[in-house]
Design brief:
alpha/beta, 8 strands, about 10% strand, hydrolase, disordered N terminus
């Protein structure tokens, strides 16, 4: 994938000891110390740190000149590409999957321009348009084949009122994604329990389409029977080998302040059910910048991983290897 051509960085958050790396890696590595156990990444030169979930949108000037916001979706925080690149550089993140933001709705021109300016650093996830006239199917195909998008996001709350993502248009787009060889990210912002039956139906009917569950399907650490049942449903989706989980936007999942330690048990059980090679970290930039900071969001994963005794190999999968393998042809 294009991300793999970027310079090799080993995140300082993956190291917890003062051991020296071999001379072949000494120029490309950084070290971060933690009060917890030592985790040492492998010496594979292909290892990159990849953010599997973030957004960019136009600066106010860009919006005024060329890339207008969708009416009513004007952002209240900065999320321009220059800000993102600065944050990624400071955090030692090599590449990312940019998810089309609702701020520009189905106008992908801003994100497309960023992808073209930084082809070695970014790949794109477009936003599915569930218009009843079926125009979104052709748009999806064009965005993938002409503009190089590598994934598509299903936002159930953009579907016509009263309709599900398993309606005729939803199934057509889901099937088309499988034909195009791109995964479908599903945002269950109002709760996995509202969409579990739809996800199971799509996975059963179209097993060749890969599914990404954004933000752990919005499952918080359960505190009651209903939440425990929903989290069990998330774990049970692992029976579909094409389903992956994003351990992303931890500030949305945690009931505690940074570093969101209560998400550790969630991560532990997800790794046990799915395997680390079906789990990937994501920041949810730019929202995370005002929550805990971009660099801190990346570091939180290593802190959490050390507390639940995640192996260095598993941590490598979560911090980049899973995304690199999933998008290796992108």
């Amino acid at each position: 994938m294009a991300i793999a051509t970027t310079s090799y960085f080993i995140s300082r958050t993956l190291l917890f000891s003062s051991k020296k790396l071999s001379s072949t890696m000494s120029m490309a590595s950084k070290t971060i110390h933690s009060s917890s156990q030592s985790i040492t990444p492998s010496s594979s030169p292909s290892l990159k740190i990849v953010d599997s979930h973030l957004h960019v949108w136009a600066s106010p000037q860009e919006a005024a000149e060329k890339y207008p916001y969708f009416p009513g979706q004007e952002p209240s925080i900065p999320g321009d590409a220059d800000f993102l690149l600065k944050c990624m550089s400071e955090a030692g993140v090599d590449g990312a999957l940019i998810v089309q933001p609702i701020n520009h709705m189905f106008d992908h021109s801003l994100v497309t321009s960023v992808l073209k300016r930084q082809p070695s650093k970014f790949i794109g996830c477009c936003l599915a348009n569930p218009a009843e006239d079926g125009s979104g199917i052709k748009q999806l195909e064009d965005l993938v084949l002409k503009d190089g998008y590598c994934a598509v996001r299903f936002n159930p709350y953009l579907w016509p009122s009263g309709q599900k993502i398993t309606n005729e248009i939803g199934k057509a787009m889901f099937s088309k994604a499988g034909e195009l060889g791109i995964p479908v990210g599903i945002m269950c912002m109002k709760g996995l329990s509202l969409h579990i039956s739809e996800i199971e139906e799509l996975c059963t009917t179209y097993p060749s389409t890969v599914v990404l569950l954004d933000h752990m399907a919005f499952c918080k650490p359960p505190v009651n029977d209903g939440e425990r049942e929903t989290f069990s449903a998330l774990l049970n989706l692992s029976r579909f080998p094409q389903v992956y989980v994003k351990f992303s936007a931890l500030f949305r999942l945690s009931r505690k302040p940074y570093p969101y330690e209560d998400t550790g048990e969630l991560l532990s059980q997800v790794i046990s059910s799915y395997g680390a090679n079906r789990v990937m970290w994501g920041s949810d930039f730019p929202y995370v910048a005002s929550e805990c900071g971009y660099k801190e969001a990346k570091e939180a994963v290593s802190l959490i991983a050390s507390q639940i005794h995640v192996s260095s190999s598993d941590l490598e999968w979560i911090m980049g290897r899973t995304a690199m393998q999933l998008f290796e042809h992108s």
